[in-house]
Amino acid sequence: MGPASGTGPLSGTTVVEMSGIGPGPFAGMMLADLGATVIRVDRLPGGGGVLSSRGLLSAGKADVVSRGRRSIAVDLKLAEGVELVLKLVDSADVLIEGYRPGVMERLGLGPEICLRRNRRLVFGRMTGWGQDGPLARAAGHDINYIALSGALGAIGRAGQTPVPPLNLVGDYGGGGMLLAYGVVAALLSVGRTGAGQVVDAAMVDGAALLMAQFYGMSAIGRWTGERGTNLLDTGAPFYDVYPSSDGGFLSVGPLEPAFFAILLERLGILDIDPESQHDVRSWPVLRLRLASEFAARTRADAAQLFADADGCVFPVLSLSEAPQHPHNVARGTFVTRDDIVQPAPAPRFSETPTQLTLPPPAIGEHTDGILSDLGISDDEVRRLHEVGVVGSAEPRP
Length: 397
Hints:
Layout: E1 14-18, H1 23-33, E2 37-43, E3 69-74, H2 79-90, E4 94-97, H3 103-107, H4 111-117, E5 122-127, H5 142-149, H6 168-193, E6 197-202, H7 203-210, H8 212-219, E7 240-243, E8 249-252, H9 257-267, H10 283-295, H11 299-305, E9 313-315, H12 326-331, E10 334-337, E11 340-343, H13 367-373, H14 378-386, E12 390-391
Parallel strand pairs: 1-2, 1-4, 2-3, 4-5, 5-6
Antiparallel strand pairs: 3-12, 7-8, 8-9, 10-11
Helix pairs in contact: 1-6, 5-6, 5-7, 6-7
């Protein structure tokens, strides 16, 4: 159905994405980055449908998470609009949606109907609370889902309020990535069994999954319930962030004894025994010494001090600085398109390399082409526009 999105490992896979916000679009970006042809069903301006990410973010070339798609704008309040989406489903490999439980069913696009028409379809569902359970239909956002998973309560400094880690743990790591992973796993199952299935991806589940190590450590008494007192939550002075003399910051993380010894040696701290690293009684003094040493140096000087040594000390970079770091430049970790610096597709593949393909589409930018791919005549396309079933592109900002 139309040109493949790229040359990556998912080239030849067609995904229908119901427009939404947060983790659904992120999963769509990941699938498109890996070569899938992604067709986003957008809300028809002034018509039916559900709010897309463009209701929260500026549209156009800066909408990086929307890259790699084609867009068709459809009024889902109309039966003809729903039937057009079902025609897309007929020849698709995947459908992903991020509505509350029951919305797709009310639209006439639920998994029972879609899988009846296409038995090989992977029907990916992205929600905060999951398709069932007492909170399944409750409103919420990333911060709420990670709160109930135990993740938010574990993040922050001792004696202070929990700190939301942007929306990385719920929306993206525990949501969009989980959905993309589930979709690819289900596609592998289709290859073996010929049968599609529903993927129920919930952000509360995904955030809990990301906490697996910490639940294990807690079970054996190696992780306390007191925030900011543990090995990886700024409790340990050798795993923390320190300010430099020029207002910058250094990330410090030599967890292994050999690396910790290098940290002390390079900073000239010779009166502290490296063997005392995990003696919590020594941590207050160690923290003061490390803070003093880093505060006496600029960020660049401190980073250079460890440039040729495994002390696990690196500068904390801003969004504008990270793309310029020599390592990121050498690997091509960031790319620039239309003057917008953005992360490159990841991970890397030796035989099916990925690349940026389509830029973020305007709503309905590809409506006519997608309808043509479905075998709909030009006259019928004109009629669908005239009666308001579909729409064309909005002007780009």
